[in-house]
Here is the input.
Amino acid sequence: MSARTILLYLCGHAGAIRDVAQSRAAFVTGLVLVLITTIPRNYDQIFIGEVPLRWLLGSLFFSFISGTWLYAVAYGWLARWRMEGDAVQHQSFSSGYFSDWRGFMGLFWMTAPIAWLYALPVERFLDSITATQANLVLLGVVSLWRVLLMARVLQVLSQAPFLAALVWVLLAAGVETFGVTFFSPAFSKSFISAMGGMRNSPEEDILFAALRTVMGASLYGTPVVLVAALFIRPKGLRALPVPQAAPVPVTLLVGLLVAWVVVAIVPQMEVARTAQARRLIQLGKPREAVDYLAAHQPKDFAPAVPLPPKTYEFQTFKELPRVIGVLQTTDPAWVRQVMLKKLDEMVSHSGHRFRTPGYLEERQKFIDWVAHGNWVYTAEPNGFVAMLDGLARLPEGRDWLRRNEPYLQGLKAAAVSREQAPGWELLATRVETALKGLPENPPKP
Here is the structure.
């Protein structure tokens, strides 16, 4: 099997599809391609040292389930159901149903290079919002390409009309998409954040809107596709060909692996630095984390992974105040700017779950929004005391305090309401001290 055959296969060339289907090497070749594809999927997003098993085997695990499900629905049920007796090579359930699985999985896994589109480093030349939109477009292209290619494979090999093959693939894909979307961690995070009064980041809002659209399309479209699959009854379908012995293209696969490893080295170093800074913050070592950031430049970190701490999670109310509390005027300006920007993001979702940031245009309602926020149940008052001290030390921190006087009023009101709890009385006093140094007519939020 040559690189030319693989490229033609990915383009839906009938001859290449038959060549791949008749080659026993397709199974091993496809499996290795899936393992290689884990690099372009993860190389600039996740450090391999953090989750090595998921990093290396995650794609293979999910593709195994996805391919088996597609085989069971599109070929094992819908296509075989319409084959005449002499077209089905094996009659018993154990052999007849599963005999073609190996050949089908080889065909499915051979689509792995399509996912190499995910490797495009859009975050390096686009802002985060545009990069998120671009990644969703790439995801849509990859998904559509795979659906059309697998439908083409079934058309060529089973002699089914393309529309029938497409309906079969869409039925399997629709059920899978709904299940994956509904139980995805991203969808769960969106739901839990909304219930807990947290905002999502602008990038997550784009992702969740896309997830809701996809879920709705699969929910309402799958029944229609199911009806079409039951009514479309092509005749004279053929079974998959019996694969013949063929050499695995070892040289090609090794060359691809080496090429992707080389591509991944620098991005993995960047992701590793971001992971190290995050680890220090999670271990409660904010000063060490700031020193680590200060020893590098912004370009040394992964552009696709936000620097810690994450500001659209409840943990930010513990981690970010600690970090700002240890900032010094001697720290690089870019580190201070990043942390103050994160502080603005933290303020933007400090409110109660029954209020929304739409209240920001009214001063008193904004103060109440902050004062009654769910953040008070996870925050550490000593961390906020340290944060105020840190802001008072920094020139840009003092400017931030002046611009965010209503937030300080809300913080004070929250501290006063919880004065009986340890540390909150000190926070109320410290906020009052900070307010006394502000202008009499502070700007509105």
Remarks:
- The chain has two domains: 3-267, 309-436.
- The chain has 19 helices and no strands.
- Residues 3-267 form one domain.
